[in-house]
Amino acid sequence: MLCEMHGAPAAFFSQKENRYVCFKCLVSSEQLLYIDKSYKSEMEDFERIKSITEEAMKSNVKNTTIIHNWRCDLRKSLMAVR
Asked: Which helix (H) or strand (E) holds 28?
């Protein structure tokens, strides 16, 4: 059997359409995102950036806390002067 739309082998049965469909039709009818090998490097880059960001956030907690405390102390001092 061949898919009428794509001319590819219709190897999957779609209960929605009640007929055999090809892989492309199945992916589009189920609103799936097909990730093939071409996305692999992009996904690896994304995961690398995500881990670097997470590490930067964790390492900067001490510095951001110091800045926050300093800002609060400065505001208290200014309010006391007023």
From this structure: helix 23-29
